[in-house]
Design a protein that fits this description.
Elements (H helix, E strand, L loop, with lengths): L1 H18 L5 H14 L4 H14 L14 H10 L4 H18 L19 H8 L8 H4 L12
Helix pairs in contact: 3-5
Length: 153
């Protein structure tokens, strides 16, 4: 019974969101933040949504009605910003979360950015795995050249 009540409540919320197409972007953003808080998001997460969405919509008039927002322009704005690919991915991800909450079906694509890290060669790995001799200095054990000069007192 509780599951049915929950589903009905969710359906009503979706219908109310969809009926209010003439709401402004600012109104929908505030509803989104309130909904995130109501659904148990921590303050840190909501602050992240606020910060990222503020940047995302910085070139958009917040008094624009939801049905007039050009989502492609917003995605283009993000993609042309002089920021790292990872930051772009992060902004697009937050925008998609908001758009999904609004019920917008055409979500922007975001590709996952993967950083390729430099790896050791087989020869370098063999050197690292070789057991050092008992008479080696600390430097030699760690692949550093042996010091030839002595400290004078």
């Amino acid at each position: 019974m509780q599951a049915l009540i929950f589903l009905c409540a969710q359906a009503v919320k979706i219908m109310l969101k969809m009926k209010k197409k003439n709401d402004t972007l600012q109104e929908k953003l505030e509803e989104f933040f309130a909904d995130r808080e109501y659904n148990g998001c921590c303050a840190y997460t909501i602050r992240g949504y606020r910060q990222k969405l503020r940047v995302v919509f910085s070139q958009t008039d917040l008094d624009t009605t939801i049905d007039k927002v050009d989502w492609n322009d917003i995605v283009h704005f993000i993609n042309t910003k002089d920021i790292t690919d990872y930051s772009k991915f992060s902004y697009i991800k937050e925008l998609r979360t908001f758009m999904r909450w609004l019920g917008v079906n055409e979500l922007p694509k975001s590709k996952h950015i993967e950083t390729v890290k430099e790896t050791y060669t087989d020869e370098e790995l063999k050197k690292l795995m070789r057991k050092p001799g008992k008479d080696c200095s600390f430097a030699e054990k760690n692949g550093l050249p042996r010091r030839t000069s002595s400290v004078s007192q």
